[in-house]
Backbone:
Protein backbone atom coordinates (compact mmCIF):
# COMPACT_ATOMS: atom_id res chain seq x y z
CA UNK A 1 0.00 0.00 0.00
CA UNK A 2 2.76 2.43 -0.79
CA UNK A 3 5.00 3.80 -3.48
CA UNK A 4 8.47 2.59 -2.61
CA UNK A 5 10.42 4.10 -5.49
CA UNK A 6 9.77 7.73 -6.33
CA UNK A 7 10.24 8.43 -10.04
CA UNK A 8 10.81 12.13 -10.83
CA UNK A 9 8.30 13.36 -13.40
CA UNK A 10 11.06 14.45 -15.77
CA UNK A 11 12.49 10.90 -15.72
CA UNK A 12 9.06 9.40 -16.32
CA UNK A 13 8.41 11.71 -19.27
CA UNK A 14 11.74 10.72 -20.78
CA UNK A 15 10.99 7.03 -20.18
CA UNK A 16 7.70 7.32 -22.07
CA UNK A 17 9.47 8.67 -25.16
CA UNK A 18 10.74 5.11 -25.75
CA UNK A 19 7.15 4.07 -26.50
CA UNK A 20 4.47 5.03 -28.97
CA UNK A 21 2.44 6.04 -25.97
CA UNK A 22 1.88 9.78 -26.28
CA UNK A 23 3.16 12.51 -24.05
CA UNK A 24 3.01 12.44 -20.24
CA UNK A 25 0.11 14.45 -18.83
CA UNK A 26 -0.32 13.05 -15.33
CA UNK A 27 1.18 10.43 -13.02
CA UNK A 28 -0.14 9.38 -9.64
CA UNK A 29 1.52 6.88 -7.37
CA UNK A 30 -1.18 4.38 -6.50
CA UNK A 31 -1.60 2.38 -3.33
CA UNK A 32 -1.88 -0.97 -5.03
CA UNK A 33 0.29 -4.03 -5.13
CA UNK A 34 1.96 -4.48 -1.76
CA UNK A 35 5.11 -5.71 -3.44
CA UNK A 36 5.69 -3.18 -6.23
CA UNK A 37 5.61 0.55 -6.89
CA UNK A 38 2.77 1.47 -9.21
CA UNK A 39 1.88 4.67 -11.01
CA UNK A 40 -1.32 5.42 -12.85
CA UNK A 41 -0.01 7.30 -15.86
CA UNK A 42 -2.04 9.40 -18.27
CA UNK A 43 -0.62 10.42 -21.63
CA UNK A 44 -1.99 12.39 -24.54
CA UNK A 45 -3.19 9.10 -26.08
CA UNK A 46 -4.03 6.61 -23.32
CA UNK A 47 -3.69 5.52 -19.72
CA UNK A 48 -1.25 2.97 -18.35
CA UNK A 49 0.01 1.37 -15.19
CA UNK A 50 3.74 1.85 -14.73
CA UNK A 51 5.13 -0.80 -12.39
CA UNK A 52 8.56 -0.80 -10.78
CA UNK A 53 9.44 -4.18 -9.32
CA UNK A 54 10.72 -4.09 -5.77
CA UNK A 55 12.75 -6.82 -4.17
CA UNK A 56 9.94 -9.33 -3.58
CA UNK A 57 9.42 -9.97 -7.30
CA UNK A 58 12.21 -11.93 -8.94
CA UNK A 59 13.21 -10.20 -12.18
CA UNK A 60 13.89 -13.61 -13.75
CA UNK A 61 10.16 -14.43 -13.41
CA UNK A 62 9.01 -11.39 -15.34
CA UNK A 63 9.25 -12.93 -18.84
CA UNK A 64 6.97 -15.76 -17.65
CA UNK A 65 4.34 -13.26 -16.46
CA UNK A 66 4.65 -11.20 -19.65
CA UNK A 67 4.33 -14.18 -21.94
CA UNK A 68 1.40 -15.54 -19.96
CA UNK A 69 -0.56 -12.28 -20.12
CA UNK A 70 0.18 -11.86 -23.82
CA UNK A 71 -1.03 -15.42 -24.38
CA UNK A 72 -4.21 -14.90 -22.37
CA UNK A 73 -4.99 -11.50 -23.91
CA UNK A 74 -4.53 -12.93 -27.41
CA UNK A 75 -7.22 -15.50 -26.52
CA UNK A 76 -9.68 -12.86 -25.38
CA UNK A 77 -9.08 -12.88 -21.64
CA UNK A 78 -9.45 -9.49 -19.99
CA UNK A 79 -5.95 -9.21 -18.60
CA UNK A 80 -3.53 -6.28 -18.79
CA UNK A 81 -0.93 -6.62 -21.53
CA UNK A 82 2.65 -5.51 -21.08
CA UNK A 83 3.41 -2.74 -23.58
CA UNK A 84 6.46 -3.07 -25.80
CA UNK A 85 8.59 -0.03 -26.64
CA UNK A 86 9.52 0.92 -30.22
CA UNK A 87 12.28 -1.68 -30.19
CA UNK A 88 10.01 -4.43 -28.91
CA UNK A 89 11.28 -4.38 -25.32
CA UNK A 90 8.74 -4.92 -22.57
CA UNK A 91 11.16 -5.03 -19.64
CA UNK A 92 12.98 -1.79 -18.87
CA UNK A 93 15.02 -0.16 -16.13
CA UNK A 94 13.73 2.98 -14.44
CA UNK A 95 15.09 4.68 -11.31
CA UNK A 96 17.31 1.65 -10.79
CA UNK A 97 14.45 -0.85 -10.84
CA UNK A 98 13.10 -3.32 -13.38
CA UNK A 99 10.05 -1.55 -14.80
CA UNK A 100 7.18 -2.24 -17.20
CA UNK A 101 4.49 -0.18 -18.85
CA UNK A 102 1.21 -2.08 -18.60
CA UNK A 103 -2.25 -1.68 -20.06
CA UNK A 104 -4.72 0.10 -17.76
CA UNK A 105 -8.06 -1.62 -17.23
CA UNK A 106 -11.05 0.08 -15.62
CA UNK A 107 -13.21 -1.59 -13.03
CA UNK A 108 -13.59 -1.70 -9.28
CA UNK A 109 -12.88 -4.51 -6.84
CA UNK A 110 -15.90 -5.54 -4.80
CA UNK A 111 -15.63 -6.08 -1.06
CA UNK A 112 -18.79 -8.11 -0.48
CA UNK A 113 -19.36 -10.08 -3.69
CA UNK A 114 -22.92 -10.76 -4.74
CA UNK A 115 -23.77 -14.18 -6.17
CA UNK A 116 -23.90 -12.76 -9.71
CA UNK A 117 -20.44 -11.29 -9.22
CA UNK A 118 -19.10 -14.59 -7.85
CA UNK A 119 -20.53 -16.32 -10.89
CA UNK A 120 -18.77 -13.84 -13.19
CA UNK A 121 -15.50 -14.39 -11.32
CA UNK A 122 -15.86 -18.17 -11.65
CA UNK A 123 -16.54 -17.80 -15.34
CA UNK A 124 -13.53 -15.52 -15.83
CA UNK A 125 -11.35 -18.07 -14.01
CA UNK A 126 -12.68 -20.83 -16.29
CA UNK A 127 -11.95 -18.69 -19.35
CA UNK A 128 -8.44 -18.11 -18.08
CA UNK A 129 -7.93 -21.85 -17.58
CA UNK A 130 -9.26 -22.59 -21.06
CA UNK A 131 -7.01 -19.94 -22.59
CA UNK A 132 -3.96 -21.15 -20.64
CA UNK A 133 -4.42 -24.77 -21.79
CA UNK A 134 -1.94 -24.38 -24.67
CA UNK A 135 0.47 -22.07 -22.82
CA UNK A 136 3.86 -23.74 -22.68
CA UNK A 137 5.56 -21.63 -20.00
CA UNK A 138 6.04 -23.08 -16.54
CA UNK A 139 6.91 -21.67 -13.14
CA UNK A 140 7.22 -23.68 -9.94
CA UNK A 141 4.86 -22.77 -7.09
CA UNK A 142 7.04 -21.76 -4.16
CA UNK A 143 3.92 -21.85 -2.00
CA UNK A 144 2.98 -25.50 -2.54
CA UNK A 145 2.66 -28.18 0.14
CA UNK A 146 6.44 -28.31 0.58
CA UNK A 147 6.54 -24.52 0.79
CA UNK A 148 3.84 -24.63 3.50
CA UNK A 149 6.03 -26.97 5.54
CA UNK A 150 8.92 -24.51 5.16
CA UNK A 151 6.76 -21.59 6.25
CA UNK A 152 5.44 -23.55 9.24
CA UNK A 153 9.00 -24.34 10.32
CA UNK A 154 9.94 -20.66 10.08
CA UNK A 155 6.96 -19.61 12.19
CA UNK A 156 7.71 -22.39 14.70
CA UNK A 157 6.97 -21.52 18.30
CA UNK A 158 5.66 -18.07 17.33
CA UNK A 159 2.37 -19.58 16.07
CA UNK A 160 1.08 -19.71 19.61
CA UNK A 161 1.70 -15.97 20.02
CA UNK A 162 -1.06 -15.53 17.43
CA UNK A 163 -3.50 -18.02 18.97
CA UNK A 164 -3.00 -20.68 21.65
CA UNK A 165 -2.72 -24.12 20.09
CA UNK A 166 -2.16 -22.80 16.57
CA UNK A 167 1.20 -24.57 16.15
CA UNK A 168 -0.37 -27.96 16.93
CA UNK A 169 -3.30 -27.22 14.61
CA UNK A 170 -0.93 -26.40 11.73
CA UNK A 171 1.11 -29.55 12.30
CA UNK A 172 -2.04 -31.70 12.25
CA UNK A 173 -3.31 -30.02 9.10
CA UNK A 174 0.01 -30.48 7.32
CA UNK A 175 -0.07 -34.19 8.29
CA UNK A 176 -3.59 -34.45 6.86
CA UNK A 177 -2.56 -32.76 3.62
CA UNK A 178 0.61 -34.88 3.33
CA UNK A 179 -1.61 -37.95 3.49
CA UNK A 180 -4.42 -36.68 1.28
CA UNK A 181 -3.10 -34.07 -1.20
CA UNK A 182 -4.28 -35.08 -4.68
CA UNK A 183 -1.01 -35.38 -6.59
CA UNK A 184 -2.51 -36.88 -9.73
CA UNK A 185 -4.91 -34.14 -10.75
CA UNK A 186 -4.23 -32.13 -13.93
CA UNK A 187 -1.62 -29.43 -13.54
CA UNK A 188 -1.58 -26.17 -15.44
CA UNK A 189 -0.66 -22.52 -15.12
CA UNK A 190 -2.91 -21.01 -12.47
CA UNK A 191 -3.48 -17.50 -11.10
CA UNK A 192 -3.12 -18.71 -7.50
CA UNK A 193 -4.30 -15.44 -5.92
CA UNK A 194 -7.68 -14.57 -7.46
CA UNK A 195 -9.08 -12.59 -4.53
CA UNK A 196 -11.79 -9.98 -5.17
CA UNK A 197 -8.97 -7.38 -5.00
CA UNK A 198 -7.56 -8.89 -8.18
CA UNK A 199 -10.80 -8.93 -10.17
CA UNK A 200 -11.96 -5.65 -11.68
CA UNK A 201 -15.69 -5.42 -12.24
CA UNK A 202 -18.31 -3.12 -13.64
CA UNK A 203 -21.61 -4.06 -12.05
CA UNK A 204 -21.80 -7.84 -12.42
CA UNK A 205 -19.34 -7.98 -15.33
CA UNK A 206 -15.66 -8.76 -15.02
CA UNK A 207 -13.56 -6.08 -16.75
CA UNK A 208 -10.14 -7.41 -15.77
CA UNK A 209 -8.12 -10.06 -13.95
CA UNK A 210 -4.97 -8.51 -12.54
CA UNK A 211 -1.93 -9.15 -10.35
CA UNK A 212 -0.60 -12.40 -11.82
CA UNK A 213 2.61 -12.20 -9.78
CA UNK A 214 1.81 -15.43 -7.93
CA UNK A 215 0.85 -17.29 -11.10
CA UNK A 216 2.63 -20.62 -11.40
CA UNK A 217 2.25 -24.24 -12.44
CA UNK A 218 0.21 -26.31 -9.98
CA UNK A 219 -2.92 -28.44 -9.62
CA UNK A 220 -5.44 -26.54 -11.72
CA UNK A 221 -8.43 -27.19 -9.46
CA UNK A 222 -6.42 -25.71 -6.59
CA UNK A 223 -6.92 -22.34 -8.34
CA UNK A 224 -10.68 -22.83 -8.01
CA UNK A 225 -10.20 -23.70 -4.34
CA UNK A 226 -8.14 -20.52 -3.73
CA UNK A 227 -10.84 -18.47 -5.44
CA UNK A 228 -13.51 -20.26 -3.38
CA UNK A 229 -11.73 -19.42 -0.13
CA UNK A 230 -11.38 -15.79 -1.21
CA UNK A 231 -14.92 -15.14 -2.50
CA UNK A 232 -17.29 -17.24 -0.42
CA UNK A 233 -16.73 -15.91 3.11
CA UNK A 234 -17.01 -12.63 4.93
CA UNK A 235 -13.70 -10.81 4.98
CA UNK A 236 -12.83 -12.15 8.43
CA UNK A 237 -13.89 -15.70 7.61
CA UNK A 238 -16.77 -15.56 10.06
CA UNK A 239 -19.62 -16.46 7.69
CA UNK A 240 -19.77 -18.80 4.73
CA UNK A 241 -21.99 -17.75 1.82
CA UNK A 242 -23.19 -20.91 0.05
CA UNK A 243 -24.98 -18.92 -2.66
CA UNK A 244 -21.70 -17.33 -3.68
CA UNK A 245 -20.03 -20.75 -3.76
CA UNK A 246 -22.80 -22.26 -5.90
CA UNK A 247 -22.57 -19.31 -8.28
CA UNK A 248 -18.76 -19.40 -8.46
CA UNK A 249 -18.73 -23.10 -9.32
CA UNK A 250 -21.62 -22.69 -11.79
CA UNK A 251 -19.74 -19.89 -13.55
CA UNK A 252 -16.59 -21.98 -13.72
CA UNK A 253 -18.52 -25.01 -14.97
CA UNK A 254 -20.15 -22.94 -17.66
CA UNK A 255 -16.87 -22.49 -19.53
CA UNK A 256 -14.43 -25.05 -18.14
CA UNK A 257 -15.60 -27.27 -15.31
CA UNK A 258 -14.28 -29.66 -12.71
CA UNK A 259 -13.86 -33.39 -13.36
CA UNK A 260 -15.23 -36.01 -10.95
CA UNK A 261 -11.72 -36.52 -9.58
CA UNK A 262 -11.34 -32.78 -8.98
CA UNK A 263 -14.72 -32.61 -7.29
CA UNK A 264 -13.81 -35.53 -5.03
CA UNK A 265 -10.62 -33.73 -3.97
CA UNK A 266 -12.12 -30.24 -3.75
CA UNK A 267 -12.55 -30.17 0.02
CA UNK A 268 -8.89 -31.09 0.50
CA UNK A 269 -7.81 -28.46 -2.04
CA UNK A 270 -9.83 -25.84 -0.13
CA UNK A 271 -8.14 -26.87 3.13
CA UNK A 272 -4.81 -26.39 1.40
CA UNK A 273 -5.84 -22.97 0.09
CA UNK A 274 -7.00 -21.81 3.52
CA UNK A 275 -3.80 -23.10 5.13
CA UNK A 276 -1.63 -21.37 2.50
CA UNK A 277 -3.07 -17.91 3.21
CA UNK A 278 -3.14 -18.55 6.96
CA UNK A 279 0.56 -19.43 6.83
CA UNK A 280 1.73 -16.47 4.74
CA UNK A 281 -0.32 -14.12 6.89
CA UNK A 282 1.04 -15.73 10.07
CA UNK A 283 4.58 -15.37 8.75
CA UNK A 284 4.01 -11.69 7.91
CA UNK A 285 2.30 -11.15 11.27
CA UNK A 286 5.23 -12.59 13.17
CA UNK A 287 7.74 -10.62 11.10
CA UNK A 288 5.96 -7.24 11.01
CA UNK A 289 6.21 -4.99 14.08
CA UNK A 290 2.77 -4.24 15.56
CA UNK A 291 3.45 -0.51 15.24
CA UNK A 292 4.54 -0.64 11.58
CA UNK A 293 2.50 1.47 9.22
CA UNK A 294 1.52 -1.44 7.00
CA UNK A 295 -1.71 -3.23 7.79
CA UNK A 296 -1.10 -6.76 8.98
CA UNK A 297 -3.71 -9.12 7.56
CA UNK A 298 -5.26 -11.31 10.19
CA UNK A 299 -4.15 -14.96 9.89
CA UNK A 300 -7.17 -16.06 11.90
CA UNK A 301 -9.50 -15.01 9.09
CA UNK A 302 -8.08 -18.00 7.20
CA UNK A 303 -7.95 -20.29 10.24
CA UNK A 304 -11.74 -19.82 10.43
CA UNK A 305 -12.02 -20.81 6.76
CA UNK A 306 -9.80 -23.82 7.41
CA UNK A 307 -12.00 -24.89 10.31
CA UNK A 308 -15.04 -24.52 8.10
CA UNK A 309 -13.56 -26.56 5.25
CA UNK A 310 -12.40 -29.29 7.64
CA UNK A 311 -15.90 -29.78 9.00
CA UNK A 312 -18.16 -28.94 6.05
CA UNK A 313 -19.96 -31.46 3.87
CA UNK A 314 -17.60 -31.64 0.84
CA UNK A 315 -20.55 -31.60 -1.58
CA UNK A 316 -21.88 -28.37 -0.08
CA UNK A 317 -18.67 -26.58 -1.08
CA UNK A 318 -19.57 -27.17 -4.72
CA UNK A 319 -23.06 -25.81 -4.35
CA UNK A 320 -24.70 -29.22 -4.58
CA UNK B 1 2.14 8.83 1.21
CA UNK B 2 -0.56 6.33 2.00
CA UNK B 3 -4.26 5.68 2.00
CA UNK B 4 -5.30 5.72 5.63
CA UNK B 5 -9.02 5.07 5.24
CA UNK B 6 -10.04 2.24 2.94
CA UNK B 7 -13.42 2.91 1.31
CA UNK B 8 -15.11 -0.25 -0.01
CA UNK B 9 -15.97 0.11 -3.69
CA UNK B 10 -19.66 -0.52 -3.02
CA UNK B 11 -19.72 2.36 -0.53
CA UNK B 12 -17.91 4.64 -2.96
CA UNK B 13 -20.36 3.79 -5.77
CA UNK B 14 -23.27 4.57 -3.46
CA UNK B 15 -21.62 7.84 -2.37
CA UNK B 16 -21.30 8.97 -6.00
CA UNK B 17 -25.05 8.56 -6.57
CA UNK B 18 -25.51 11.74 -4.49
CA UNK B 19 -23.84 13.70 -7.30
CA UNK B 20 -24.48 14.30 -10.99
CA UNK B 21 -21.13 12.66 -11.57
CA UNK B 22 -21.82 9.52 -13.56
CA UNK B 23 -21.33 5.94 -12.50
CA UNK B 24 -18.20 4.62 -10.78
CA UNK B 25 -15.83 2.86 -13.18
CA UNK B 26 -12.53 2.88 -11.34
CA UNK B 27 -11.02 4.09 -8.07
CA UNK B 28 -7.35 4.00 -7.12
CA UNK B 29 -6.00 5.08 -3.78
CA UNK B 30 -3.26 7.56 -4.58
CA UNK B 31 -0.09 8.25 -2.67
CA UNK B 32 -0.59 11.98 -2.43
CA UNK B 33 -1.30 14.33 0.40
CA UNK B 34 0.51 13.12 3.49
CA UNK B 35 -2.35 14.22 5.69
CA UNK B 36 -5.42 12.88 3.88
CA UNK B 37 -6.67 9.78 2.10
CA UNK B 38 -7.07 10.40 -1.61
CA UNK B 39 -8.65 8.38 -4.39
CA UNK B 40 -8.43 9.05 -8.09
CA UNK B 41 -11.97 8.22 -9.18
CA UNK B 42 -13.13 7.64 -12.72
CA UNK B 43 -16.82 7.71 -13.57
CA UNK B 44 -18.76 7.30 -16.78
CA UNK B 45 -18.64 11.09 -17.23
CA UNK B 46 -15.46 12.48 -15.65
CA UNK B 47 -12.56 12.05 -13.26
CA UNK B 48 -12.34 13.33 -9.71
CA UNK B 49 -10.23 13.33 -6.61
CA UNK B 50 -12.10 11.95 -3.59
CA UNK B 51 -10.50 13.18 -0.39
CA UNK B 52 -11.18 11.87 3.10
CA UNK B 53 -9.83 14.19 5.77
CA UNK B 54 -7.75 12.51 8.42
CA UNK B 55 -7.10 13.97 11.84
CA UNK B 56 -4.50 16.59 10.84
CA UNK B 57 -7.03 18.67 8.90
CA UNK B 58 -9.55 20.47 11.10
CA UNK B 59 -13.05 19.94 9.69
CA UNK B 60 -14.00 23.47 10.76
CA UNK B 61 -11.42 24.83 8.29
CA UNK B 62 -12.92 23.05 5.28
CA UNK B 63 -15.51 25.71 4.40
CA UNK B 64 -12.70 28.30 4.22
CA UNK B 65 -10.75 26.13 1.76
CA UNK B 66 -13.87 25.41 -0.30
CA UNK B 67 -14.91 29.04 -0.50
CA UNK B 68 -11.38 30.12 -1.39
CA UNK B 69 -11.06 27.63 -4.25
CA UNK B 70 -14.50 28.50 -5.58
CA UNK B 71 -13.53 32.18 -5.46
CA UNK B 72 -10.22 31.59 -7.23
CA UNK B 73 -11.70 29.26 -9.86
CA UNK B 74 -14.45 31.78 -10.63
CA UNK B 75 -11.68 34.31 -11.37
CA UNK B 76 -9.90 31.99 -13.78
CA UNK B 77 -7.25 30.47 -11.52
CA UNK B 78 -6.44 26.86 -12.31
CA UNK B 79 -7.39 25.39 -8.96
CA UNK B 80 -9.51 22.30 -8.26
CA UNK B 81 -13.12 23.11 -7.38
CA UNK B 82 -15.02 21.24 -4.73
CA UNK B 83 -18.01 19.51 -6.35
CA UNK B 84 -21.46 20.02 -4.86
CA UNK B 85 -23.95 17.17 -4.70
CA UNK B 86 -27.51 17.46 -6.03
CA UNK B 87 -28.54 19.24 -2.83
CA UNK B 88 -25.68 21.69 -2.99
CA UNK B 89 -23.56 20.05 -0.29
CA UNK B 90 -19.82 20.00 -0.80
CA UNK B 91 -18.85 18.53 2.56
CA UNK B 92 -19.93 14.92 3.15
CA UNK B 93 -19.24 12.01 5.46
CA UNK B 94 -17.79 8.78 4.05
CA UNK B 95 -16.44 5.79 5.97
CA UNK B 96 -16.65 7.85 9.13
CA UNK B 97 -14.57 10.73 7.77
CA UNK B 98 -15.32 14.20 6.42
CA UNK B 99 -15.07 13.76 2.66
CA UNK B 100 -15.20 15.88 -0.50
CA UNK B 101 -15.39 15.19 -4.20
CA UNK B 102 -12.94 17.49 -5.97
CA UNK B 103 -12.20 18.39 -9.57
CA UNK B 104 -9.31 16.41 -11.11
CA UNK B 105 -6.63 18.44 -12.87
CA UNK B 106 -3.99 16.90 -15.12
CA UNK B 107 -0.36 17.85 -14.99
CA UNK B 108 2.86 16.63 -13.46
CA UNK B 109 4.95 18.09 -10.67
CA UNK B 110 8.50 18.85 -11.70
CA UNK B 111 11.43 17.88 -9.52
CA UNK B 112 14.13 20.13 -10.99
CA UNK B 113 12.30 23.24 -12.22
CA UNK B 114 13.65 24.98 -15.28
CA UNK B 115 13.68 28.78 -15.33
CA UNK B 116 10.67 28.86 -17.66
CA UNK B 117 8.77 26.66 -15.23
CA UNK B 118 9.77 28.83 -12.28
CA UNK B 119 8.53 31.85 -14.20
CA UNK B 120 5.19 30.12 -14.84
CA UNK B 121 4.91 29.25 -11.13
CA UNK B 122 5.63 32.85 -10.15
CA UNK B 123 3.01 34.07 -12.58
CA UNK B 124 0.44 31.58 -11.28
CA UNK B 125 1.15 32.75 -7.73
CA UNK B 126 0.67 36.36 -8.83
CA UNK B 127 -2.62 35.45 -10.52
CA UNK B 128 -3.72 33.72 -7.33
CA UNK B 129 -2.86 36.81 -5.27
CA UNK B 130 -4.72 39.05 -7.71
CA UNK B 131 -7.77 36.78 -7.65
CA UNK B 132 -7.72 36.52 -3.84
CA UNK B 133 -7.63 40.31 -3.39
CA UNK B 134 -11.41 40.55 -2.93
CA UNK B 135 -11.80 37.28 -1.01
CA UNK B 136 -13.29 38.03 2.38
CA UNK B 137 -12.56 34.77 4.23
CA UNK B 138 -9.79 34.68 6.79
CA UNK B 139 -7.87 31.93 8.56
CA UNK B 140 -5.08 32.48 11.09
CA UNK B 141 -1.68 31.04 10.22
CA UNK B 142 -0.80 28.58 12.99
CA UNK B 143 2.72 28.47 11.57
CA UNK B 144 3.57 32.16 11.95
CA UNK B 145 6.42 33.62 13.98
CA UNK B 146 4.63 32.81 17.24
CA UNK B 147 3.98 29.28 15.96
CA UNK B 148 7.69 28.91 15.16
CA UNK B 149 8.53 29.82 18.74
CA UNK B 150 6.07 27.14 19.93
CA UNK B 151 7.59 24.53 17.63
CA UNK B 152 11.11 25.43 18.74
CA UNK B 153 10.09 25.01 22.39
CA UNK B 154 8.60 21.56 21.63
CA UNK B 155 11.77 20.43 19.88
CA UNK B 156 13.90 21.85 22.70
CA UNK B 157 17.00 19.85 23.50
CA UNK B 158 16.29 17.37 20.69
CA UNK B 159 17.48 19.88 18.06
CA UNK B 160 21.05 18.90 18.76
CA UNK B 161 20.27 15.23 18.01
CA UNK B 162 19.67 16.40 14.42
CA UNK B 163 22.80 18.54 14.16
CA UNK B 164 25.20 19.82 16.84
CA UNK B 165 24.49 23.46 17.66
CA UNK B 166 21.11 23.50 15.90
CA UNK B 167 19.24 24.56 19.05
CA UNK B 168 21.43 27.63 19.46
CA UNK B 169 21.12 28.46 15.74
CA UNK B 170 17.32 28.34 15.96
CA UNK B 171 17.26 30.56 19.05
CA UNK B 172 19.46 33.15 17.35
CA UNK B 173 17.34 33.11 14.19
CA UNK B 174 14.15 33.52 16.16
CA UNK B 175 15.71 36.50 17.96
CA UNK B 176 16.64 38.00 14.58
CA UNK B 177 13.13 37.50 13.22
CA UNK B 178 11.51 38.89 16.40
CA UNK B 179 13.54 42.05 15.87
CA UNK B 180 13.14 42.31 12.09
CA UNK B 181 9.89 40.64 11.00
CA UNK B 182 7.99 43.12 8.79
CA UNK B 183 4.67 43.42 10.58
CA UNK B 184 3.35 46.27 8.48
CA UNK B 185 3.34 44.68 5.02
CA UNK B 186 0.02 43.97 3.28
CA UNK B 187 -1.70 40.83 4.53
CA UNK B 188 -3.92 38.60 2.41
CA UNK B 189 -4.94 35.00 1.92
CA UNK B 190 -1.85 33.09 0.83
CA UNK B 191 -1.17 29.52 -0.31
CA UNK B 192 1.74 29.18 2.15
CA UNK B 193 3.01 25.86 0.73
CA UNK B 194 3.54 26.35 -3.02
CA UNK B 195 6.25 23.73 -3.49
CA UNK B 196 6.78 22.17 -6.95
CA UNK B 197 4.75 19.20 -5.61
CA UNK B 198 1.73 21.47 -5.43
CA UNK B 199 2.02 22.92 -8.93
CA UNK B 200 0.81 20.76 -11.81
CA UNK B 201 2.45 21.52 -15.13
CA UNK B 202 2.37 20.52 -18.74
CA UNK B 203 5.71 21.43 -20.24
CA UNK B 204 6.31 25.02 -19.14
CA UNK B 205 2.61 25.75 -18.52
CA UNK B 206 0.91 25.61 -15.15
CA UNK B 207 -2.21 23.40 -15.31
CA UNK B 208 -3.11 23.52 -11.64
CA UNK B 209 -2.29 24.84 -8.17
CA UNK B 210 -3.28 22.25 -5.58
CA UNK B 211 -3.15 21.39 -1.87
CA UNK B 212 -4.40 24.59 -0.29
CA UNK B 213 -4.67 23.00 3.16
CA UNK B 214 -2.07 25.36 4.63
CA UNK B 215 -3.67 28.43 3.05
CA UNK B 216 -4.24 31.20 5.58
CA UNK B 217 -4.11 34.94 6.16
CA UNK B 218 -0.58 36.30 6.49
CA UNK B 219 1.92 38.73 4.98
CA UNK B 220 1.33 38.33 1.26
CA UNK B 221 4.97 38.67 0.20
CA UNK B 222 5.79 35.83 2.61
CA UNK B 223 3.99 33.55 0.11
CA UNK B 224 6.51 34.64 -2.53
CA UNK B 225 9.33 33.92 -0.08
CA UNK B 226 7.97 30.40 0.65
CA UNK B 227 7.75 29.76 -3.10
CA UNK B 228 11.26 31.14 -3.55
CA UNK B 229 12.66 28.77 -0.91
CA UNK B 230 10.86 25.82 -2.53
CA UNK B 231 11.73 26.45 -6.20
CA UNK B 232 15.16 28.06 -6.30
CA UNK B 233 17.36 25.39 -4.68
CA UNK B 234 18.31 21.80 -5.28
CA UNK B 235 16.07 19.46 -3.32
CA UNK B 236 18.59 19.18 -0.48
CA UNK B 237 19.29 22.89 -0.35
CA UNK B 238 22.85 22.44 -1.55
CA UNK B 239 22.76 24.73 -4.59
CA UNK B 240 20.98 28.01 -5.22
CA UNK B 241 19.75 28.62 -8.77
CA UNK B 242 19.67 32.39 -9.36
CA UNK B 243 18.16 31.98 -12.84
CA UNK B 244 15.12 30.27 -11.31
CA UNK B 245 14.81 33.05 -8.74
CA UNK B 246 15.01 35.78 -11.37
CA UNK B 247 12.38 33.96 -13.45
CA UNK B 248 10.08 33.35 -10.48
CA UNK B 249 10.13 37.02 -9.45
CA UNK B 250 9.74 38.17 -13.07
CA UNK B 251 6.69 35.92 -13.49
CA UNK B 252 5.19 37.23 -10.26
CA UNK B 253 5.92 40.84 -11.24
CA UNK B 254 4.28 40.34 -14.61
CA UNK B 255 0.82 39.97 -13.06
CA UNK B 256 1.06 41.24 -9.49
CA UNK B 257 4.43 42.37 -8.23
CA UNK B 258 6.23 43.31 -5.05
CA UNK B 259 6.24 46.83 -3.59
CA UNK B 260 9.47 48.56 -2.56
CA UNK B 261 8.64 47.78 1.08
CA UNK B 262 8.14 44.09 0.24
CA UNK B 263 11.40 43.98 -1.70
CA UNK B 264 13.25 45.58 1.20
CA UNK B 265 11.91 42.91 3.56
CA UNK B 266 12.23 40.00 1.16
CA UNK B 267 15.45 38.59 2.57
CA UNK B 268 13.93 38.48 6.07
CA UNK B 269 10.76 36.85 4.72
CA UNK B 270 12.90 34.18 3.04
CA UNK B 271 14.73 33.53 6.30
CA UNK B 272 11.33 33.06 7.95
CA UNK B 273 10.18 30.69 5.22
CA UNK B 274 13.34 28.58 5.49
CA UNK B 275 13.03 28.47 9.29
CA UNK B 276 9.36 27.48 9.09
CA UNK B 277 10.06 24.38 6.99
CA UNK B 278 13.19 23.55 8.95
CA UNK B 279 11.14 23.63 12.17
CA UNK B 280 8.21 21.52 10.98
CA UNK B 281 10.62 19.00 9.48
CA UNK B 282 12.68 18.94 12.68
CA UNK B 283 9.53 18.40 14.74
CA UNK B 284 8.41 15.52 12.48
CA UNK B 285 11.94 14.12 12.50
CA UNK B 286 12.07 14.08 16.27
CA UNK B 287 8.60 12.57 16.53
CA UNK B 288 8.87 9.92 13.79
CA UNK B 289 10.70 6.69 14.61
CA UNK B 290 13.70 6.15 12.31
CA UNK B 291 12.32 2.76 11.27
CA UNK B 292 8.82 4.03 10.43
CA UNK B 293 7.70 3.45 6.86
CA UNK B 294 7.10 7.13 6.16
CA UNK B 295 9.92 9.11 4.64
CA UNK B 296 11.23 11.71 7.03
CA UNK B 297 12.06 14.92 5.20
CA UNK B 298 15.50 16.22 6.07
CA UNK B 299 15.36 19.40 8.20
CA UNK B 300 18.92 20.25 7.17
CA UNK B 301 17.81 20.83 3.58
CA UNK B 302 16.11 23.96 4.94
CA UNK B 303 18.90 24.84 7.36
CA UNK B 304 21.12 25.11 4.26
CA UNK B 305 18.58 27.46 2.67
CA UNK B 306 18.44 29.48 5.88
CA UNK B 307 22.23 29.79 5.91
CA UNK B 308 22.14 30.91 2.29
CA UNK B 309 19.45 33.54 2.89
CA UNK B 310 21.24 34.84 5.99
CA UNK B 311 24.42 35.50 4.04
CA UNK B 312 23.20 36.32 0.52
CA UNK B 313 23.03 39.79 -0.98
CA UNK B 314 19.32 40.63 -0.50
CA UNK B 315 19.07 42.12 -3.99
CA UNK B 316 20.34 38.91 -5.57
CA UNK B 317 17.33 37.01 -4.18
CA UNK B 318 15.09 39.11 -6.38
CA UNK B 319 17.09 38.47 -9.51
CA UNK B 320 18.54 41.94 -9.62
Residues:
Amino acid sequence: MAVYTHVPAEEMAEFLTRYDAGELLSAKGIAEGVENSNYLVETSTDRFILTLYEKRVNEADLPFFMDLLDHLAARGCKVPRFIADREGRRLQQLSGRPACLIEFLTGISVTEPKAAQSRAAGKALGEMHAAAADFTGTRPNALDLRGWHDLARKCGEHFDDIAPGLGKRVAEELAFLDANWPADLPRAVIHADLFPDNVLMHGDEVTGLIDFYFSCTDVRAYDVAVTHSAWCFDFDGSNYHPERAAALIAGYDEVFGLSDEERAAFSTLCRGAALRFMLTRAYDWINTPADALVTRKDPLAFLRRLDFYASADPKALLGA
Q: What stands out?
A: The two ends of chain A are 39 Å apart (CA to CA).
